[in-house]
Amino acid sequence: MITPPVVRRNTPQRYRLEANKCAKCGKVFFPPRLVCDACRGRKFAPVTLADTGKVVACTVIRTPPTGFSDLSPYCMGIVELKGGTRIQCQIADCEPERVKIGLPVTLEFRRVQEDGESGVLAYAYKAVPAR
Ligand SMILES: [Zn+2]
After folding, report:
1. Which residues of the chain register pLDDT less than 50?
2. Which residue, 117, 120, 115, is CA-closest to 1?
């Protein structure tokens, strides 16, 4: 469940596609990390990821976790953004069976779920077929 403190803590990456790039070797991390797993570097610079890319893996969710039953069936995938960074997200606005590896997509900021009875809305990026 995505709670408001988590949303606030993750705001840069969740709302602005902000990653960090290792100052020593150039590897990009999303979400940002404190230590580079390639060179053990600890200095990073913020970078904004591209909002376009292609599907590199996908699966159809027919038995969703609590809170996502109104979406079922839906497609979850791994999208490789221009620049090479991969992110996991829902692939929306498309029949799940039509999502294929290589499908060009654009990221859009959408409502993900409502947090139980409190009605707090959680937002994140979803990939939609490029138009
Ligand atoms: Zn590095």
Report:
1. none
2. 115
